[in-house]
Amino acid sequence: MIEYLQGSKQHTELHLTQFGMEECIPGHFFGPAVRTHYLLHYILEGEGIFEVGGNRYRLEKGQGFLIVPDVITYYQADETNPWSYCWIGFSGTLAETLLKQAGLTMASPILHYNRDDIICQYLQLMIDSREYRKARETRLTGLLYLMLSELAEFGPSTPPGHKESRTEIYVEKVKDFIEINYAQKITIEDIARFIGLNRSYLCSLFKQRMNTSIQDYLIRYRMNKACEMMANAELSIGDISRSVGYSDPLLFSKIFKKMKGVSPRQYRTGETDRHKVNSPS
Question: Domain count of the chain?
Fold first, then answer.
């Protein structure tokens, strides 16, 4: 059983391209070949081999393998105990990040999950979603998120051979917090409180890793977002100011000019050389 799905304009971050289940005959194989999307197989019974990047893996029930886009792979069912498996194919800008959370990358393509039958349950729900006429695509996307969250929760936190340092983890948390909350009146204290570290210690870690202060990173992030908003003619300078966390348009204009070399109005109307404006300050 296999179902192919059309591309998604609504769920560009993550969407299913196909899913299915198969009981393979002895020796059944595919490849060597490449795919244009991610393909994750999960073995329900039996065994077989998976080859990628010069490595050969012998796999069995409770394991699986990840096929990465544009990478040559080969897989084959065992001659005496052929595997049956289910699979999901998917694409999207968040696919790689979500797979990494489950410990799955091109360098670490083997899935280990032998807790329960939750993967089969999600696959059945995908099949049953055919009864949804208006919102099937959204339901399928939600089920894909749930399945990947299950693999991330009970899989390795990082791929073997790569462990993030505490500094990297804290720095990424700061960047994520700013990305989500830059439009609010956030302070460095707010960020430190959210992460659970002393303000001075967090600032020191961030400066050491990023070669800039948290405050400067926040301001630069806001000004870059403001530049993106300038293209929307429906937004006034005041609208943009408030949208990037400044209730005072005059203060926003002052900081913008200091960072970009021109006022927001000059930037928008192109009164100066944009190459100069966008050069690092």
Answer: 2
